[in-house]
Amino acid sequence: MHFTLTDLVTDIVQNGTESGASLVELLVNETLDSAGKGEFRFVVKDNGKGMTSEEQKLAEDPFVSDGVKHSRRKVGLGIPFLIQTAETSGGGWKIDSRKQPGTDVSTGTQVSAWFDLGNIDTPPVGDVPGMVRTVLLFNGPSEMVIQRFRDSPEGRIEYEVKKTELIDALGDLEDVQSLILLDQYLRSLEEGSLEEGNGENDEAPVKTGDL
After folding, report:
1. What is the CATH number of the domain that holds 98?
2. Residue 53 exposed, middle or buried by CB count within 10 Å (0-12, 13-18, 19+)
3. Which residue range forms the structural domain that includes residue 131?
4. Is the entire prediction scored with pTM above 0.90?
């Protein structure tokens, strides 16, 4: 199976959009040194229906599927595959979800995962702007906020996009012309926002403790 880290991100974001959430937030943070070593980390947070502790255990089990999201697939590989990939690539993961059993009271779900980019078992990062475009088109939440950070020897990337603001600017995001403009915009952010680090701005944009 050939896959990338952005494929994993896309799958987890899709889970969030299908949770009944009105807001899904995605943070993607990447650090890379001159030797090609570093870390890829992402956080997906939603205000959806959440999971009880028992539901979370089932979600982490690769041999359990609700039969809804992938009706023809007998084995759920979303969160279990994320966990396996993170652990085998020298990284880790964390899921924080709260729901009172038998009620609709929930604090939503937050899924975090990180990967060692210097580990031989870590998949390639993949197409980040392509992934952002894909998740923005998911049905469900009325708002999606995406933050992207990248620090490398070439400089720094730092930007934020909001689904509602893009709709205000472009109209229907699924319109062919809007899709073309959206893709061009996202790639310009990813490729044209590099700034050389200097002084106090060299501080990491995202702290591990915040995740």
Report:
1. 3.30.565
2. exposed
3. 5-210
4. no
